[in-house]
Amino acid sequence: MWFVILTRQDYFYFSGNLKVDNRTLQQAFNAVFHNKESFSEFCSLEQRKHIVEFLYRGRKVYKTSAQYKHYLRFLEKVVLRHLATNANVVHSYIKGKSALTAVTTHSENSAFFLTDIKSFFPNITELNVKHVLNRDKNLVPISDFEHFIPYLAKIMTWDDSIPAGFPTSPQLSNGFLFDFDNALYDFCKTNELTYTRYSDDIIISGKYKDKLLCLKDTVQDLLHNYASKNFFINNEKTRITHAGNKVKILGLIITPKGRVTIDSKYKRTIESLLHFYTNDRSRYNDLLQNEFDGKEHSLFGLLHYAKATDPAYLEKLQRKYGLLALRQLMEDRWNGSR
Predict the structure, then answer these.
(1) How is 248-302 classified by DSSP, letter by letter?
(2) What is the DSSP string of 184-196?
(3) Is the CB of residue 79 less than 8 Å from the CB of residue 167?
(4) Name one GO biological process term (predicted).
(5) Which residue in 91, 290, 70 sits closest to 177, CA to CA?
(6) What is the CA radius of gyration of the chain?
(7) What are the structural domain ranges in the chain?
(8) Where are the alpha helices (DSSP H) in the chain?
(9) How far apart are CA 19 and CA 60, in angstroms?
(10) Secondary structure of residue 87 in the 3-state scheme
(11) Count of CB atoms within 10 A of residue 12's CB?
């Protein structure tokens, strides 16, 4: 096992906080790997030796070698973080944004259109990746980047798609939808609607339900015109809902008062466990076994999820069950082994 140590200069280079003269791809590679890896070997990868394909719950899943994964992470940091994205729209795979921010953006509206893109990653092809890299080649601070585009597109895809599990796939997917995001954002702005996207999930909201009725056809047309003819929205998951109903988006709830919180089923689980934790440890252990196979760390994660999503709800729990109980259950006793 080895660790990559970034110098202060390298840190600023890769974080994008300081403008520096463009390096060659090899210079960037050596700056990150400090001669622990060979650039010539990186440029002559035999993918089949580094990728294992297997089925998980009926889906193809890919496991890469540690070396290959290091290479892909290098490309994610040095190349893909510079791809163009619409910052007003995209909330996935971006520091400081999350499902929570994607949903909170809509909290003051009362009507919601929800859909997602079928087979999102599998329908982004090697040719699509080349298109994105060529489109944004002037944004990437690598002087000879254009020379490597065909090869980089090849090693960031497998079986002519961007596989789920490749470190490069999330940023590539965001970059690929840049033109679509812009077109749909402009349409929504013109029609006084709000649009956010979290990976393949599309969320559009407004004050009035009637403005959402045509969106199914509009979104589909824009996907074909600005992304790919292979992209189709998922009709089974497409729906329109409104305040007064249970508005559940990306696993979060928007209350009638416009507050974003966690689902009531999670609240029931948390409150039942906290009740027994403070009153009857034997029944607490039984319920913990039933809900989480006895793994208290799952409750730890759920409590921190509640804290990040709805701090006011956590304060309510502290008042009801005691600050000490919450502190004990939210303390990380796993020494980073999560």
Answers:
(1) EETTEEE-TTS-EEE-HHHHHHHHHHHHHHHH-HHHHHHHHHHHHTT-HHHHHHH
(2) HHHHHHHTT-EEE
(3) no
(4) defense response to virus
(5) 91
(6) 23
(7) 25-242, 263-332
(8) 8-15, 25-33, 39-42, 66-78, 99-104, 126-135, 145-155, 169-176, 178-190, 215-226, 264-279, 281-292, 296-309, 311-321, 323-330
(9) 40
(10) coil
(11) 14
| One-letter amino acid for residue 66 of the chain | A
**For every one of its 338 residues, what pLDDT tens digit does the chain have, with 9 covering 90 and above?**
333 334 434 433 444 443 445 899 999 999 999 989 999 999 999 999 999 988 877 777 888 999 999 999 999 999 999 999 999 999 999 999 999 999 999 999 999 999 999 999 999 999 999 999 999 999 999 999 999 999 999 999 999 999 988 999 999 999 999 999 999 999 999 999 999 999 999 999 999 999 999 999 999 999 999 999 999 999 999 999 998 888 999 999 999 989 999 999 999 999 999 999 999 999 999 999 999 999 999 999 999 999 988 999 999 999 999 999 999 999 987 655 44
Extract the tokens encoding 265.
């089923």
Tokens in use for 256? 């009638």
Tokens of 251: 């696993």
Strands 247-249 and 194-198, sheet pairing = unpaired
Entry pTM: 0.84
The token pair that represents 139 in the structure block: 């944004």
Six-digit token pair at 95? 């520091």
Round to whole Å and give the CA distance between 291 and 288: 5
